[in-house]
Amino acid sequence: MTTMVKVAELAGVSISTVSHVLNGTRPVNEDTRQRVLDAIKETGYRQDALARSLRRSKTDSIGLIVSDSGEPAFAEMVRGVEQAAAEQGWTLLLANSTEDPEREARAVQALLERRVDGLILARVAGSDPGLLTDFGGKGTPLVLLDRLAELPFDQVGVENEGPITEIVHHLVERGHERIMLVAGDTRVATLGERRDAFLRTAPAAGLVPEHQVVVAAEDTATLVAGIREALDGGKQAERPTALIACSTVIAAATLRTVKELGLRIPEDLAVAVFDGFEHPDLFEPSLTTIRQPAFGIGVKAGELLARRIADKGAEPAVVRMEPSVEYRSSTEHRIR
Amino acid sequence: MTTMVKVAELAGVSISTVSHVLNGTRPVNEDTRQRVLDAIKETGYRQDALARSLRRSKTDSIGLIVSDSGEPAFAEMVRGVEQAAAEQGWTLLLANSTEDPEREARAVQALLERRVDGLILARVAGSDPGLLTDFGGKGTPLVLLDRLAELPFDQVGVENEGPITEIVHHLVERGHERIMLVAGDTRVATLGERRDAFLRTAPAAGLVPEHQVVVAAEDTATLVAGIREALDGGKQAERPTALIACSTVIAAATLRTVKELGLRIPEDLAVAVFDGFEHPDLFEPSLTTIRQPAFGIGVKAGELLARRIADKGAEPAVVRMEPSVEYRSSTEHRIR
DNA sequence: CTGAAAGCGCTTACAG
DNA sequence: CTGAAAGCGCTTACAG
Prior knowledge:
The structure is a homodimer.
Chain A: H1 4-11, H2 15-23, H3 30-43, H4 49-56, E1 61-66, H5 72-88, E2 91-96, H6 101-113, E3 118-121, E4 142-145, E5 154-158, H7 161-173, E6 179-184, H8 189-204, E7 212-216, H9 220-232, E8 242-245, H10 248-260, E9 270-274, E10 288-291, H11 294-310, E11 318-321, E12 324-326
Parallel strand pairs in A: 1-2, 1-3, 3-4, 4-5, 5-11, 6-7, 6-8, 8-9, 9-10
Antiparallel strand pairs in A: 10-12
Helix pairs in contact in A: 1-2, 1-3, 5-11, 7-8, 9-10
Chain A binds a DNA duplex through helix 2 and helix 4.
């Protein structure tokens, strides 16, 4: 491998000068500079970021951990963070935790060992609380993404109360009196918040308590069993006529169950989903969707991290971004 | 930050011993070992991967560059590579090129500067050929992913000829005599191969040349215009009765156009797609899909890279994996 | 079983 | 405008 030493020899200068030419850190005689540049080209020299980072105690890289970068909402957040990173001149190290606390811990460890300048983290359900002790204060800058918590860190996520309230009213206006919320694993902060919002907003919208069904479970099998019981068991008149699925993954499991039960959307059951699927304009049923500004959330996370890196003492900021509700035919049917 | 020096002082040993305890690289007296371990715990010491890598000339990390990790097929390949990386003890540095040659070049540069032990690359259309000069031979190990080329590197991708032939015959059997291939940007190797396979296979299946329509374009607007012209212009009797979309992105643009033209699937138009959408069982139209074994392709790429890293002199391997064709209602209609 | 020391490839005060 | 040298935090022959 070519190092600065070889370049310096070829150009007949010291490695100091090569370094300063490379980084533009001090004026260099134009002739000398040109000789160095020529030597770099001739040797195909490439700076060693490891050595540079070691010396500078700064890697110009940040870590990003999400549960699954292939999921539409996270994919979009990743794109947002990428844009912010490009603006800051950071290399982005992206890791997937696959919703597994152990893999999350390993990813954090690996990124910290690589001395990232900061970390953006969407924590998994059941995330090890001890994981965050190395962050904040004079530790590595950290921004919590998507899944917020009562913790003294910068955070960006979506506002959940407003849209849940809006959807519930939308459904009530169309005559629905029995509404089911498929919440999923409510240890995930976003899902817990949506559940809480539902339980607060439903009575205010006029639903009686027995007609608010919340299905929560830590695993899909139990969740599906819960959905089945709510939709299939009991008398038809007692069955929910509308449901809200709290994430894309949950929506997929829910729709599959609804299909198996032979229920039609929206005639038998109105459906609204959080986050939702791609290309909602191309496929049926076309689903009413609460869409978060995922790209913007990613960008914001990057910006907060940049601010935190520049000023470790800044007051932690908690940013909630407003989703938009896209109404489609899955909730248009009036039952009364 | 805690370094080995502090740990060594606390344990009353040399940094050599700390290092050997950490890495298990030589026997250490059990008492001593325990003192070191205690000191590590007490100080919260964490190894510095930069310094370690610099010294060992080995980072235990690999780079992966795809055009968009949010696209279903790439998302699945990423998961496959992640699994292989976990098995090898590699940290994965993932970058998106967003189908842009410049961003691709910057990503390659950044990863090389970080001294990744190897790189897996799905090249963009119009990729700079000079980009690959630093690879192969005694350079950084490289595996080409998805988009293969006549180059002396390890490569893994999908077999295109077989499934295209199968789909064309499937359509011909159902009475289709005019078939359109929406190929997209044929500079992308996979798309070029699918186009070539179509042009070879269609005549053999009995299609006359004038009834084989290929729509290719480097940008979406031109592509859509081409689709429009083929489906909308001319007499109805001359319009294709079936189409094959060569990727998920192309399929989305195509379906949107088909919808705008008011054509029904499958009655007016049979549709088959390469790669396809998620949850094909949940939405209508349910599309006949050529599904590549994307996870397996990712795993294989990781394995080939591991082999290459272990033996730089090995003969380059080119692996083609077989996709499966999932038949659904979008091509079931018989027109004759 | 253990330690002193060289060296990985850089950056950056310090000195001239 | 330029160079000699220290030092970032490790690993690893070498020596005992």
